[in-house]
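We include the entry.

. . .
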Amino acid sequence: QVQLAESGGGLVQAGGSLTLSCAASERISSVNGLDWYHQAPGKQREWVATITRGGNPLYSDSAEGRFTIFRDDAKNTVYLQMNNLKPEDTGVYYCREGEYWGQGTQVTVSS
């Protein structure tokens, strides 16, 4: 069973930046892809970004141009760098690898 542990969330003002981390218990270089999801208060979980096995990033429309997903295979960790944060980015961010999910990390963006 794969374990994923997110960290890096917190409180930030609008326009600020945060970098989230997701540490995996297995070698991430061998997985098909790693994803970040966002769940805003009272809303469904939504896909934010994916980094493929080949290292190609994919982004939702809301993340494109503001967020960057990247990984460090030596640390078995995937990151989500978030810039120009908006109040609507508030919520819990989850890391996913296949059927496995982390516990999430809270991001709060104040206006």
Observations:
- The chain has a mean pLDDT of 96.
- The longest strand covers residues 45-52.
